[in-house]
Amino acid sequence: MKQAKIAPRVNLSVRLKNPWFWVGLMGVILSAAGADPAMFTSWQLVWQAIRQMVTNPYQLAAVLLAVLGVFVDPTTEGICDSEQALRYSRPKAKEEKK
């Protein structure tokens, strides 16, 4: 009998090693949060903006959905990584993609 999958399988350790993952993650978080340059002129303003985002259900949902979009592999069905991607121990190099 097949066991039900409890959580999606995502190769998070490889994603965290890829600098472009961080660029995409920060980009969608800042965009979904409605960040503007004036928000980053002091730590007090940054924390105030974070508090406002967390207490705004719409903005919080937008950020969470945007973050989910960064984690999902668009080449696979659902939100899980492929078996091949789960076997990686580091991001695939250009030479390996041939």
Task: Describe this entry's structure for a reader.
By secondary structure, this protein is mainly alpha-helical. The chain has a domain at 35-72. It contains five helices and no strands. The chain has helices spanning 12-17, 19-32, 43-55, 57-71, 83-87. Helix 2 packs antiparallel against helix 4 (57-71).
Structure characteristics:
98 residues, 5 helices, mainly alpha
How far apart are the termini?
Answer: 38 Å
Number of strands: 0
Global shape: elongated
Element-level helix/strand string: HHHHH
What's the story with the biggest beta sheet? none
**Please, what is the average pLDDT?**
82
Structural class: mainly alpha
Helix content: 40-55%
- Treating each run of at least 4 consecutive H or I residues as one helix, how many helices? 5
Please tell me how large the radius of gyration is: 17 Å
User: Which blocks of ≥5 consecutive residues have pLDDT under 50?
Assistant: none
Strand content: under 5%
Task: Describe the structure concisely for a colleague.
This protein is mainly alpha-helical and 98 residues long. It has helices at 12-17, 19-32, 43-55, 57-71, 83-87. The longest helix is centred in the middle third of the chain and has 15 residues, at 57-71.
SSE diagram, text form:
Layout (H helix, E strand, L loop, with lengths): L11 H6 L1 H14 L10 H13 L1 H15 L11 H5 L11
Helix pairs in contact: 2-4
